[in-house]
């Protein structure tokens, strides 16, 4: 075979990645369950580069140079296993199967281990950037063996987005590391989106701005420290008018946010790792709450404050406060994500370079932002940064924003406008900032009802108080 890479699964992501490889001079073998898609790709885009269309699994494998590199772009879950079962028997030791779907990292670990027994490299790879990213340059997060990256890495780097000449692709770590990091990316994506949604809601219901005016505010923010793809597209969505009704587009869309599940996985995994990713969790919960029509029906109209849009003079100052609340909350959300990467890397022994993750998210992916340059710089200065808030510049920004941030959260509560992600971010900040936490009381309660013991602040050891006995003597247990 002559093709340097093969792509099987030619729905929009697979098709665009195949075209991206071809545009970069690689010969690309094509395969799809139904051959019509393969033919359509060649008919529509054949002029863009060298494609080798194939119809059977055997022809597809035969079209590839060795070691073979097969990129699988099918729906995550059962279909991925089916494709692996179809192709693995046709492969030889040293060949590489790349899964570019949004697979759960535990599935990737299982698949990698199984294929490794047969000498086949399995590279679970995060790919972010949607359709356009896949074609023009995504952010790519490959896991799998370091050996597989030697031959595969240069090709992935070639088709990835570039920032300051650096590719938005790096070897994340062994087995499921790539898909884990992509999952956390999506958790952060959910948090970013929810924070932006809350900012919009407050600007509209408390600030009294129209969607068109809010689009303008977001455009302004996009020239500052919030500069990001998500802020940019938010302005586009808010400025859009529905053609059939003439109303703001945002007013004719059903207000129930859906999810394919990667945000939920982030939170499920965080619970297992013991990571308090509260802002990401609130973003996932906000989506599910929006979809519970039965609950919304039961609560709708219950008495409570009604937001009254403020006078224009005040709304300008309010918009500035919302920018600060959004920025501070964003730092917290990212800090939660980075902490989760640190802990995942430790638990699974992946040795993930956290600074490199920031670097490859500067471009191509959905959360791409000027802000990622800042995180990347912070890790360049201090590769073992334990938290973004341990970076003096971030700490200054967040502490500097907090008066506005507190005021926005207070205003939201007083006005009856939900701001779960803003509030969770602020509570997280205050929790970790506090000298003492009421966790001490929780420990006391646990010891009272379950003899679960506690530690003392003044001397080492494990203690239990005999709560049921008169005198409530304390016994040291170890
Ligand atoms: C990306 C996105 C992408 C994700 C969709 C939908 O990085 O390109 O994260 O991978 O699948 O945006 O996600 P939800 O349906 O869960 O919102």
Automatic annotation (TrEMBL):
Catalytic activity: 6-phospho-D-gluconate + NADP(+) = D-ribulose 5-phosphate + CO2 + NADPH
InterPro entries registered for this protein in UniProt: 6-PGluconate_DH-like_C_sf, 6PGD_dom2, 6PGDH_C, 6PGDH_Gnd/GntZ, 6PGDH_NADP-bd, 6PGdom_BS, NAD(P)-bd_dom_sf, Pgluconate_DH
EC number: 1.1.1.44
Enzyme class at the top of the EC tree: oxidoreductase
Gene3D superfamilies (alphabetical): 6-Phosphogluconate Dehydrogenase, domain 3 (1.20.5.320), N-(1-d-carboxylethyl)-l-norvaline Dehydrogenase, domain 2 (1.10.1040.10), NAD(P)-binding Rossmann-like Domain (3.40.50.720)
Taxonomic lineage: Bacteria, Bacillati, Actinomycetota, Actinomycetes, Kitasatosporales
Gene giving rise to this polypeptide: gndA
Protein name according to UniProt: 6-phosphogluconate dehydrogenase, decarboxylating
UniProt keywords, alphabetically: Gluconate utilization, NADP, Oxidoreductase, Pentose shunt
Family annotation (SUPFAM superfamilies): 6-phosphogluconate dehydrogenase C-terminal domain-like, NAD(P)-binding Rossmann-fold domains
Family: Belongs to the 6-phosphogluconate dehydrogenase family.
Taxonomy, superkingdom: Bacteria
């Amino acid at each position: 075979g002559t093709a340097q890479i093969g792509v099987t699964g030619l729905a929009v992501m697979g098709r665009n990645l195949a075209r991206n490889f071809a545009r970069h001079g690689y010969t690309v073998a094509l395969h799809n369950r139904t051959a019509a898609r393969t033919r359509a790709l060649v008919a529509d885009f054949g002029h863009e580069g060298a494609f080798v269309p194939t119809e059977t699994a055997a022809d597809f494998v035969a079209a590839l140079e060795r070691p073979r590199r097969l990129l699988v772009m099918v729906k995550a879950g059962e279909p991925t296993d089916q494709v692996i079962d179809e192709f693995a028997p046709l492969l030889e030791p040293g060949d590489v199967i790349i899964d570019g779907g949004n697979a759960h990292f535990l599935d990737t670990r299982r698949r990698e281990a199984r294929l490794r027994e047969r000498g086949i490299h399995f590279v679970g790879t995060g790919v972010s950037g949607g359709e356009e990213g896949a074609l023009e340059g995504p952010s790519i997060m490959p896991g799998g063996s370091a050996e597989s990256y030697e031959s595969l890495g240069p090709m992935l780097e070639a088709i990835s987005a570039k920032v300051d000449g650096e590719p938005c692709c790096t070897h994340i770590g062994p087995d499921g590391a790539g898909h884990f990091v992509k999952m956390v990316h999506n958790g952060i994506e959910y948090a970013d989106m929810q924070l932006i949604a809350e900012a919009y809601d407050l600007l509209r219901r408390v600030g009294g701005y129209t969607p068109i005016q809010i689009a303008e505010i977001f455009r302004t923010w996009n020239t500052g420290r919030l500069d990001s793809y998500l802020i940019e597209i938010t302005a586009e969505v808010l400025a859009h008018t529905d053609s059939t009704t003439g109303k703001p587009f945002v007013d004719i869309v059903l207000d129930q946010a859906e999810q394919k599940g990667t945000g939920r996985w982030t939170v499920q995994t965080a619970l297992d790792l013991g990571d308090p990713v509260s802002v990401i969790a609130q973003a996932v919960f906000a989506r599910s709450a929006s979809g519970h029509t039965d609950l919304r029906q039961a609560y709708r109209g219950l008495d409570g404050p009604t937001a009254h849009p403020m006078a224009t003079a005040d709304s300008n100052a309010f918009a500035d406060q919302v920018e600060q609340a959004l920025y501070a909350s964003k730092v917290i959300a990212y800090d939660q994500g980075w902490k989760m990467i640190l802990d995942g890397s430790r638990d699974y022994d992946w040795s993930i370079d956290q600074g490199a993750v920031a670097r490859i998210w500067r471009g191509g992916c959905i959360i791409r932002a000027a802000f990622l340059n800042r995180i990347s710089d912070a890790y360049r200065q201090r590769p073992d940064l334990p938290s973004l808030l341990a970076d003096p510049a971030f700490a200054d920004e967040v502490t500097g924003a907090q008066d506005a941030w507190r005021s926005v959260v207070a205003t939201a509560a007083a006005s009856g406008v939900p701001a779960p992600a803003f509030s969770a971010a602020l509570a997280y900040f205050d929790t970790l900032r506090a000298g003492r936490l009421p966790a001490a009381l929780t420990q006391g309660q646990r010891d009272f009802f379950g003899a679960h013991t506690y530690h003392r602040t003044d001397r080492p050891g494990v203690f239990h108080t005999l709560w049921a006995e008169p005198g409530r003597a304390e016994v040291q247990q170890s």
